[in-house]
Amino acid sequence: MKYIKFVAAAALLGSACASTGPTPALVDARRAYERAYGSEAQQNAPDQVLAAKQALDAAERAHADKPGSYDEKSLAYVAERRAELAQAYGALRRDEKQQQLATRNYVESQDRLRRQAESRADTAQRSLQSAQNNLAQTRGELSDEHAARVDAEKRAAAAMESLRQVAAVKEEARGTVITLEGAVLFASGKSELLPIAQKKLDQVADSLKQVDSDQKLVVEGYTDSRGADDANMRLSQARADSVRAYLVSRGVKADMISAVGRGEQSPVADNESAEGRASNRRVEIIVQPKPGNSGQSNPASTR
To answer: Are residues 297 and 168 in the same domain?
Structure first.
């Protein structure tokens, strides 16, 4: 009989202990809070986590006052919702931070791209301005060069026209040929220039100094057919050398001008008459064509 009473008492005690345990609602609230506390809500929404903790503490107090009561269940429900809300706020604020970061990165990226574009545009503008300045300078230089060339051509033409007053000037395939009578330049059989020859050659030198520096000049000396061939060749060379030396002394560039003796070659008149022989005793100064001109030949190759 005593054993039966003991078993009954133990059963009643176990039933009483069981009745003091937390309700399922409180258990769910505790788990919900643990999830919220361990999530990013603790960092992103600490105020909401604190509110969930306060709601859970209220449910715990209700459980301590009256286990399984309506207040416990109600407050536990509120605590669970608060914990879920805290997690939701944590996720929301995480997304807001990510959006703010993305927006800031986008703005910074756009600003960087804008600055780069402006820098490239500024560089391109400076390059364009430099190119325009160079083009304007080149045009100016070309205009100046053209004007200088036209002026030089006018001076050369005027100089050649003045030459016609003291010498015979004609255009041939080998270039512009300036012919001076030997009798005006030298005494018979001599290669020293006469005083009157110097005056004529002064005018010739002034004209030849207007010739482009890339053109070559050749002084050719000639004799009539009287006398030995080798003597005539030496005399013609000496006379050509005398004319060249005088022209150089009057300012014609030495590297532009050469001298060649032709002897009695290529007569321009009949050597049987005195007049013909006088015409053959001559000095020719050839202004060769500019390099690259077509249809022209070297005077040495035509002799």
So the answer is: yes
Of residues 202, 212, 209, 205, the one with CA closest to residue 153: 212
At 145, list the tokens: 């060069």
Domain of residue 251, CATH code:
3.30.1330.60
Which range marks the domain in which residue 43 is found?
Answer: 2-101
Compute the distance between CA of residue 89 and CA of residue 96 in angstroms, rounded to an integer. Answer: 10
Query: Of 151, 180, 165, whose CA–CA distance to 239 is shortest?
Result: 180
- pTM for the whole thing? 0.49
Q: How many domains does the chain have?
A: 2
- Has residue 189 been placed in a domain? yes
Run of H or E including 259: strand 257-263
Task: Please list, in sequence order, all residues whose beta carbon lies within 8 angstroms of the beta carbon of residue 5, skipping any fewer than 6 positions away.
Answer: none
Place of tokens 């859970």: 56
Question: Is the domain of 74 the same as that of 192?
Answer: no
pLDDT in tens, 34-81: 999 999 999 999 999 999 999 999 999 999 999 999 999 999 999 999
